[in-house]
Amino acid sequence: MPAQQKKLIFCIAGVLSFACALGTAAAIGTQMWVRGTILCTTGALLVNATGPELHKFIGEIQYGLFSGQRVRQCGLGGRPFQFSFFPDLLKIIPASIHVSVILFCTVLIVFALVGAGFFMFNAFGSPYETLHGPVGLYLWSFIACSCGCLIMILFSSEVKIHHLSEKIANFKEGTFIFKTHTEQFANSFWTILVCSLVHFLNALLIRFAGFEFPFAKSKDSGTLTGAVDLMY
């Protein structure tokens, strides 16, 4: 492939990596990871609410990695409540998983920026054969993509398996019991998915630029090495 086309591919990959770093950084600080509705089962059972009456007992909840908001509905109108994970909810959430998600988000940002820098260096500089060349480009893209996948797996398990929304909804509630009515992942969660796919796409762009996967050896080189060994 001509050098100008390689430079263009590396520039595109570098811009995409930098955009993923910015998108992940923006996603960390938002409350748009999960949104849903919560049902006040205690209130609904007290008045035997059904049909349209049930909407008076359905509140809203949304949260991110650091904070969130819930609106409790128990038949007397909505009452908003702001909360933060640190330190308010540390006793009721799976803290190790939650901290791991934040840690992998940080690693994803760092390696996305590192990858963007090396892509630009290979586009406009003189690439070396180790960390600056194709081996390094594959490495940074693989690490960033893996971090994105781990973030989605860990956060999904925290929400679905550990019932994070219900734990938040019942935080500091002594009388009323809340159940998750609807629940869905929001924009910030899908931003991580897009970033993971972008880093996977960057690895394909490296291959499209003409670089073989760095851990694969050609048959010719293997045959030549074997012939040399036989000479000695």
SSE blueprint:
Elements: H1 3-28, E1 34-40, H2 41-47, E2 58-63, E3 67-73, E4 78-84, H3 95-124, H4 134-161, H5 164-169, E5 178-185, H6 187-208, H7 219-231
Antiparallel strand pairs: 1-2, 1-5, 2-3, 3-4
Helix pairs in contact: 1-3, 1-6, 3-4, 4-6
Report on the architecture of this protein.
The protein contains 7 helices and 5 strands, in the order H-E-H-E-E-E-H-H-H-E-H-H. The chain is 57% helix and 15% strand. The relative contact order is 0.18. The chain is elongated, with a radius of gyration of 25 Å. A 5-stranded antiparallel β-sheet has the order 4-3-2-1-5. The protein has a single domain (3-210), classed as Butyryl-CoA Dehydrogenase, subunit A, domain 3 (Up-down Bundle). Residues 221-232 have low confidence and may be disordered.
Rounded average pLDDT: 83
Distance between the termini: 38 Å
- Measured as a percent range, the helix fraction is 55-70%
Sheet-strand content, in percent, reads: 15-25%
Provide the domain count. Answer: 1
Which structural class do you get from the secondary structure elements?
A: alpha+beta
H/E series, N to C? Answer: HEHEEEHHHEHH
CATH class: Mainly Alpha
Number of strands: 5
Low-confidence runs (pLDDT<50, min 5 residues)?
221-232
Shape: elongated
Q: Output the radius of gyration.
A: 25 Å
Helix count from the secondary structure assignment: 7
Sheet with the most strands: spatial strand order: 4-3-2-1-5
CATH fold naming: Butyryl-CoA Dehydrogenase, subunit A, domain 3
Major sheet: size, sense and barrel closure?
Answer: 5 strands, antiparallel
Write the CATH architecture name. Up-down Bundle
